[in-house]
Design goal:
With 90 residues, the protein is mainly α. It contains four helices and no strands.
């Protein structure tokens, strides 16, 4: 595989890995840690209900989202770096 193509593939795979990690952490947040929040989010359909729901979200739930994005970014960057390093870009 040519090195330019390998670099493009590494970025795409890194993006996919980052997205999957973020989704898994947010699913854990909504289904395991704060299931009542997930149920309330399904009911909130108008902007006022969403605003009220966001005002009542526990700080821990928001921190878990931030941690998920951090872990996703690190995992995606690591995968991209490993594949790109194999192409000789280190």
């Amino acid at each position: 595989m040519r090195s330019a193509l390998k670099n493009v593939v590494s970025v795409i795979l890194g993006f996919i890995v980052a997205s999957v990690v973020m989704m898994l952490v947010e699913m854990l947040n909504g289904h395991v840690l704060y299931p009542e929040l997930s149920k309330a989010a399904r009911i909130a359909t108008n902007p006022e209900a969403v605003r009220a729901l966001m005002a009542s979200v526990p700080t821990g739930a928001m921190v878990v989202v931030l941690v998920g994005w951090l872990l996703g970014g690190v995992a995606g960057g690591w995968v991209t770096g490993r594949i790109a390093a194999a192409a000789g870009l280190r």
